[in-house]
Specification:
By secondary structure, the protein is an alpha/beta fold. It has helices spanning 20-25, 51-54, 63-75, 87-99, 113-130, 151-156, 160-164, 182-185, 201-209, 235-246, 267-271, 298-304, 324-339, 342-358, 389-402, 423-440; strands at 30-34, 37-40, 45-48, 104-110, 138-142, 173-176, 214-219, 249-253, 277-280, 292-297, 366-372, 375-380, 404-405, 407-409, 412-415. It binds 4'-deoxy-4'-aminopyridoxal-5'-phosphate (PMP). 4'-deoxy-4'-aminopyridoxal-5'-phosphate binds next to helix 5.
Length: 441
């Protein structure tokens, strides 16, 4: 096997969501991966505490998935997605729908979480259009929500840095308040007791604009990228009730929470709440080939199927929607999840995971810890006048010296290892993160 090393010239690649100048001075470069591990360009073996970027749920370079992708590349590299089908797209849609709760039974494919979100927002508005409620165009997101980087996604998203460089994005957007409150919820395990009432804010927004102008509410069941904010008890159920009362569609963005991350196929299942649409990406192919999509309820799909049969029902889609390589990867991935009962493994280990991550309480600068499913966040107190700097220090320490890959959200350490993990892996990840926290203190 030839393995890449650090290239001589790092200038041309403008890295996404990265402090480019500082990265290029001391690159963190990964060149190989297998199961629970990465290898850096310097030859160090790192345990993956992040599932890559919340996506490698089955573990790295798993043989059945690799083989499915290889076979598909030989058999048929590409097929056009419009007016022509490839059998694996239909098979994968059936399998994804079968994992979703209730009557969420139709799947629209995209290539990323961002495309999935923009697709869902467009379907919501179009749905109201085709059902004679064209005035319903307003979209509601939440503060500290992350819904990707399309214009739709940043508009409903609630992250200031992701919006402020890019003008006004979409008009007619409102935000529910964030569900996090350290004073009330600090060091909580699973769903915090406090905060269910925050869903009532939707009533205020309805009061302000009238329900007849509101198309949809989109939330991550657990906000991931803004630092792991599990839903307060009763919050999602309440959102569902209020949406039902006013005919507003409810979208769960499950790009992170889908495919086992919260110890169930989808968070919707864990919480017993059936949204009108679920967006997914990442875990559907275990990160191997880009893919995203939207699962919609039967009533939404049916509303579009009313006109003459020869007419296109939804003017939306991507060249690479249901790409054959992604479909092959997706089928092999879902098979592996089932064969190895990886969602069940997450469930069995959830308490041990929580115990281990919460054992870091008391280390220097640790001001909060949250866990849910196989996810954890450890908040470090920001340095005075330099928010985010401590986060970068811990990133460097974990990568270059402790040999564990983590993710940083500002000054929070975010953990979400592959779901094939075992108890030893949990011990190792948490031990290494603890050493890093002490080392940078
Ligand atoms: N929605 C959520 C909830 C996400 O976490 C992400 C990515 N982390 C996205 C959307 C965007 O996905 P992508 O980066 O694949 O566009």
């Amino acid at each position: 096997m030839t393995v890449a090393t650090v290239p001589n010239d790092l200038e041309a690649f403008w890295m996404p969501f990265t402090a480019n100048r500082s990265f290029k001075k001391a690159p963190r470069m990964l060149v190989r991966a297998k199961d629970m591990h990465y290898w850096s360009a310097e030859g160090r073996q790192l345990i993956d505490g992040a599932a890559g970027l919340w996506c490698v749920n089955a573990g790295h370079s798993r043989e059945p998935i690799v083989k499915a992708i290889q076979d598909q590349a030989v058999e048929m590299d590409f097929s056009p997605p419009f007016q022509v089908g490839n059998p694996k797209a239909f098979q994968l849609a059936t399998k994804v729908a079968a994992l979703a709760p209730g009557d969420l039974d139709h799947v629209f494919f995209a290539n990323s979480g961002s495309e999935a979100v923009d697709t869902a927002l467009k379907i919501a508005i179009a749905y109201h259009n085709v059902t004679g409620q064209g005035a319903r165009q307003r979209l509601i997101g939440r503060v500290r929500g992350y819904h990707g980087v399309g214009f739709g996604g940043i508009a409903v998203g609630g992250m200031v840095p992701n919006r402020k460089m890019f003008g006004s994005a979409l008009p007619a957007v409102d935000h529910l308040p964030a569900t996090y409150n350290r004073a009330e919820q600090g060091f909580s395990r699973g769903e915090p007791e406090w905060g269910g009432h925050l869903a009532d804010d939707l009533e205020n927004i309805v009061g302000l604009h009238d329900a007849s102008t509101i198309a949809a509410v989109i939330v991550e069941p657990m906000a991931g990228s803004t630092g792991v904010l599990p839903p307060p008890k009763g919050y999602l159920q309440k959102l569902r009730q209020i949406c039902d009362k006013y005919g507003i569609l409810l979208i769960f963005d499950e790009v992170i929470t889908g495919f086992g991350r919260l110890s169930a196929a989808f968070a919707a299942e864990r919480y017993g709440v059936v949204p009108d649409m679920i967006t997914f990406a990442k875990g559907v192919t275990s990160g191997t080939v880009p893919m995203g999509g939207v699962i919609v309820r039967k009533g939404i799909y049916d509303a579009f199927m009313k006109g003459p049969e020869h007419v296109v029902e939804l003017f939306h889609g991507y060249t690479y929607s249901a790409h054959p390589l992604a479909c092959a990867a997706g089928l092999a991935t879902l098979d592996l999840y089932e064969k190895e009962d990886l969602f069940g493994n997450a469930k069995r280990l959830e308490d041990k995971w929580a115990d281990a991550v919460h054992s870091l309480k008391g280390l220097p600068n640790v001001v909060d810890i949250r866990t849910i499913g196989i996810v954890g966040a450890i908040d470090l107190a920001p340095k005075p006048d330099a928010p985010g700097k401590r986060g970068m220090e811990v990133m460097d320490e974990t990568f270059h010296r402790q040999d564990v890959l983590i993710r940083i959200a500002g000054d929070s350490i975010v953990l979400s290892p592959p779901l094939m993990l075992n108890e030893n892996n949990i011990g190792e990840i948490v031990d290494k993160v603890g050493k890093a926290i002490k080392a940078i203190a």
